Amino acid sequence: MRSPNDSEAEAAALRARMLATAGLALSLPMTLVGGVIVGYWLDRWLQTAPLWLALLGSAGLVSGGRLLYRLWRQLG
After folding, report:
1. Is 42 a residue whose pLDDT tops 90?
2. From 51's CA, which of 16, 18, 19, 27 has a CA 20 to 30 Å away?
């Protein structure tokens, strides 16, 4: 027979998994957008055309991919 604590534990585990999945879905776009925004701002401030936009956009893409991979491995 299952106790109420079992269903609460299952609900908590499901909530945690859903939040991790949402984090997985948002990690890449957020890091990419953050890098692009900061790169665009630096390019305008330093007048260096696409230099910082390309560098920080690429860094955001790489760090987002790394974060995505780590979260994916945690979800197993």
Report:
1. yes
2. 27
